[in-house]
Write a sequence for this structure.
């Protein structure tokens, strides 16, 4: 029974400093408040994890496999293998591709991660991913609590989803790849009542791309249902396009993302209201001996669906870092980032971006902004330096 | 240290549909309500799990061994290795047999499981096991909460028990086998107060049987204490007899079970009240090439100890399924079941049987019945189809 | 990836009996109340655990390593791998020594454990360790709850600490060894407010010693911050000295410990109040064939910082046991202990010592003392007998 099992993981720990600045706006008397914090952090370069996986060759090109992967809060030891929230799947694969059942990344998240020079970890995390996870978490909480019972700090149906069936194209299609995923809402159908069953928790999405030795480009789309009633509901619809090209001396990355928060009114006359988050990101990896210099620049614009003047906001992020490889499995790293928020009072929950938000387990207590008393999120900075060991 | 350790497990996932029908009875106006649900399920064929076990040969026929086995909610990844609720034991064994300390199955549960063609998993689960676990859970909750701190969806002292000492006869007794188990209640003795310590949580039971290559038959008995006071208390007493015979072309299974819920009044004149649950089950496994057809038919009668006319109830269950083995470790399966409840209003909590109730972790949110407003549990149906991969 | 990984653990289970006696004091009418309990226990000889660890040779004398170790409540299976509360670290080591990041034992705890003939497990646990963990837990709970989020039954910053950076001297210094550790408080600095950030949760300590084949001696010191304000605060300051000498036929152990609970008043005129706990312990291990006889005698005096007459208390403990090794990995053991408390009403929370308190996970429900109604903690006894299996 044992032969096909692999126990694997990453333990990544470092010292991180986070600082957020809130400033008065409009007619409020000039004021500025800075909150900061220094912590022993985890996952600054790669997400700390512990997992169990295996594959069985069934003959005839068929294979069965499983993958159980838990997040690890190794700075405090607080969470153990409390959940397999990173991945929990069983698959049947063959010439037809792969059918995968369980909890996994959503297809619409992949571009936010794959084309981020910082691999969506640490203070350098792709700004687009941070805004999108803020949106997913805040809307889930505002509409009845975390989806899927609270994993992933309420970012489910953005970052990952549970109760899902996925299908992946097989390799060997001339560089083309693709996947689709459907997650059951699992709500009870109460016998013919209008609007039953609720679709809350349902996710459907897909991703298609093409890659060769140098280039990689992919398009992703997904829909997450937050509420559904007889007459209306709320969905987050994500569309993104990402790519990378490896010139040898430098690898460049780029992403464009449009996420819409669409709310249909309950009454026949109620208008559809669509908030929009448009993001762009560009970055590089520059190999330097046994190390890599990493940099990215990103911007997300918030377009308020209410159409009022001056109701929008935007945020910019610059991240710079260096990774020094002691071996294939062990590396030292340092990253520093700077964030600027414009008109943050228009959407402080989503656009008030701290150095790092995308965290599972959500055990890194970062200082928030103050958005009452005439203050708005204004800027943030942070750094990580640490060690990553994989096994 | 490593040599004797085995990491093992099962990941089983599928799509399941559950439906329950409640209907009006007596003088209530005719009405019928159906609730249904479609989910990504786990454990439809075998219980999903992840475990660690090992044995050390101590010489002289002696051996020490341990076994830690966790349930895994692989459809959602929600529970990780949150507990070793399936088994958590250390043993010393030798020519004298085996002494086992910790958490394990109760001896009185074994017959409900071993002689079930569906292995007490999925919608085909032995009806007797479902009724018994409903009874154990509902009486535990009604008398102060789950025993042993909440594991096993309150079915402790029925399905498994913690804090136990078990003894097993050694092999080589001409086919005879047997075990006894005692679980400490662990309550505090408050120095001479009458009725102290409470016996709540105590379990004592045993099982004895005989088997050869074709036949297997066993008798089990157990007592679970729910409350105990100076003058009375409540116990669930389980007696069951099961057997199987393998004819080669077909393997037949059968079980008879009598479970009594015995409540002694607190006052000297208060009568003893005994509810009784009598069950019979018969089933077959029919090998068909690399697959097996499975079927079972079962009935449980509820005999209300209050002696009033028309206070009883009964439930019937028919289950049919097929398992297709892709290898020894990997299988595809499909099961369908049909349940009918008679006079369900007399005991909706225990006799209102849904397709599957016996669940650890209790993460499969099945639709319940409606037993208010003149309605009673009437019938249920369900199906599973999925994949089981063992490692 | 797999080659360097070791899965390891201990499963230790036994039957334990605990009994505590409370007695009236002063002018209260003579009365005595005994509470007792018999349980299936874990960790009577060694702490039950399950862990994952590994080391990578980076060349040039450098190595990276990780260690994740979870407590296991194997008597009930209740906690699984819910946390890596025993240890959760990643290290970089070389000729310079070792830098270790994460959760680990505190340096000031080591002497309480290393020089205890009973290895701080079971009813024989070093009295000094029990008093110190009682103090740490009760002061943490009294000043805002467990440090580090609740691990270790609130004994954090005494027994272990999270979010820490540790440094260890390299081996090969002629028998000298040493370590220092600093744990981040991780509190938010709220921009210039006086007393911000709070230092609550901060730990700093160190340990230095010398050992050869027969002798071992070490000095430890640590400070745990419980509260900090603009003008005052509370710290627990631990100083201890321990040693052992192996004469071959007998190994002797000894420890001296002084722990101060220092509270600075918030007002300028408020006095500094220092409670003091002075402990001494002496013990032996006597090898007898494949077994070891163990014994220890200890005393802790409580010196109340308020300076009132008769406000102090003391506690004595005698423990005796035998361990029979079936193999290097498997042992049977038995321990019995007797505790006497003097003037326990002056500090029942800390000085009311039960047979075993130092428990992680805190799942052994031991009977407490009664310290109301004119009663005070008076004495306790307990025994363990069980089996320990390591893998």
């Amino acid at each position: 029974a044992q032969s096909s099992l692999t126990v694997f993981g990453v333990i990544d720990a470092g010292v991180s400093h986070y600082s957020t600045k809130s400033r008065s706006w409009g007619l409020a008397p000039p004021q500025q408040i800075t909150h900061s914090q220094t912590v022993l952090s985890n996952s600054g370069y790669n997400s700390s994890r512990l997992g169990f996986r295996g594959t069985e060759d069934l003959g005839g090109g068929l294979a069965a496999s499983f993958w159980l992967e838990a997040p690890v809060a190794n700075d405090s030891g607080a969470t153990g293998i409390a959940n397999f929230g990173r991945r929990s799947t069983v698959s049947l694969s063959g010439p037809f591709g792969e059918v995968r059942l369980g909890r996994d990344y959503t297809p619409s998240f992949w571009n936010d991660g794959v084309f981020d020079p910082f691999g969506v970890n640490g203070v350098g995390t792709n700004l687009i991913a941070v805004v999108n996870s803020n949106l997913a978490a805040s809307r889930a909480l505002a509409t009845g609590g975390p989806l899927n019972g609270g994993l992933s700090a309420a970012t489910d149906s953005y970052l990952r989803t549970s109760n899902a069936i996925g299908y992946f194209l097989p390799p060997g299609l001339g560089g083309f790849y693709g996947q689709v995923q459907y997650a059951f809402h699992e709500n009870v159908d109460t016998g013919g009542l209008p609007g039953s069953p609720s679709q809350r928790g349902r996710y459907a999405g897909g991703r298609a791309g093409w890659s060769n030795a140098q280039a990689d480009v992919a398009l992703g789309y997904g829909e997450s249902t937050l509420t559904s009633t007889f007459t209306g509901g709320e969905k987050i619809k994500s569309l993104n396009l990402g790519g990378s090209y490896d010139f040898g001396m430098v690898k460049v990355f780029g992403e464009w993302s449009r996420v819409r928060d669409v709310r249909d009114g309950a009454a026949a006359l109620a208008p559809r209201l669509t908030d929009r988050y448009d993001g762009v990101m560009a970055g590089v990896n520059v190999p330097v001996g046994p190390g890599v210099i990493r940099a990215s620049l990103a911007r997300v614009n918030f377009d308020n669906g209410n159409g009022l003047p001056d109701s929008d906001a935007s945020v910019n992020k610059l991240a710079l870092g260096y990774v020094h490889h002691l071996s294939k499995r062990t590396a030292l790293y340092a990253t520093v980032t700077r964030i600027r928020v414009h008109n943050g009072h228009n959407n402080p929950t989503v656009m008030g971006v701290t150095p790092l938000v995308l965290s599972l387990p959500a055990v890194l207590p970062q200082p928030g902004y103050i958005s009452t008393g005439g203050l708005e999120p204004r800027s943030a900075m942070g750094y990580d330096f640490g060690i990553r060991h994989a096994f």
